[in-house]
Amino acid sequence: xxxxxxxxxxxxxxxxxxxxxxxxxxxxxxxxxxxxxxxxxxxxxxxxxxxxxxxxxxxxxxxxxxxxxxxxxxxxxxxxxxxxxxxxxxxxxxxxxxxxxxxxxxxxxxxxxxxxxxxxxxxxxxxxxxxxxxxxxxxxxxxxxxxxxxxxxxxxxxxxxxxxxxxxxxxxxxxxxxxxxxxxxxxxxxxxxxxxxxxxxxxxxxxxxxxxxxxxxxxxxxxxxxxxxxxxxxxxxxxxxxxxxx
Length: 246
Hints:
single chain; 6 helices; PLipase_A2_dom_sf; two-stranded antiparallel sheet; 12 strands; globular; PLA2-like_dom
């Protein structure tokens, strides 16, 4: 039993080392402009790693990253529109919200890409990875908060897609005939757009998400957005009605 565990650890370490080499190579391609799909290749590498670790077919990765209304990330990255087509698409919707918050939280800061200072966003974030054998998850680091936060979003996406592999529906992949333009229609804009207020973010990465504060009418309580006219946030992170004690 111990010998089997050692073999598994050695095999896993070899896989992680190979993944690290692939990530470095991919980021070099992205930095040199050889690829125009931002960090999509990095997400594919992470997804293939988790799929392989779970015993799933890694060839499914490109189809999963060209999928539904929010997983169109690999061939042409699209901002999600409409309603997620299924559970996998909901994972990608959360991912798009996560990366939106990276750009929002790092607004005004820049990242160094080959000596050029560029805005922090999905295309420009750079990161390094290691592996935590205790959790079986990739650990993110390197190149400042922009890259680290983006890596956290990317890793969570890849891990969750692999964990929900059985939800995949071939008909929802654009590589198998799904038409984004026909199926993913924008929602009607809210009435009184100006009332929405400023964009803010709530929660911790990788589950951080954006919301509009309605000019002070909404706020974040740890990981929940609430109406400030009705409730208040306690130090414990719980919500109570205004006038009630925490």
